[in-house]
Specification:
With 69 residues, the chain is of the alpha+beta class. It is built from one helix and three strands; from the N terminus they run βββα. A three-stranded antiparallel sheet has the order 1-2-3, covered by helices on one side. The mean pLDDT is 96.
Length: 69
């Protein structure tokens, strides 16, 4: 099972998320928990659509780390 990086950003009045390795797969929500839940559903639907269309599922290659000052 591959694990995909989810980038979550705080917007003005909500949260937005995307998968860097899966172009076009995005989600929004009022809370961080909600956007992550919606992203899981969006990703599942996105993968099902790719498979239905006979397209490959992108490989999970992104990673993340933190730096401080």
């Amino acid at each position: 099972m591959s694990r995909y990086l989810v980038v979550v950003e705080k917007a003005k009045s909500n949260f937005a998320a995307y998968l860097p390795d899966v172009p076009g797969c995005v989600a929004t929500g009022k809370t961080r928990a909600e956007v992550l839940s919606r992203m899981r559903k969006a990703f599942s639907m996105h993968v099902a659509g790719l498979k239905e269309d006979g397209l490959p599922v992108p490989e999970a290659v992104s990673s993340a780390d933190y730096v401080g000052i």
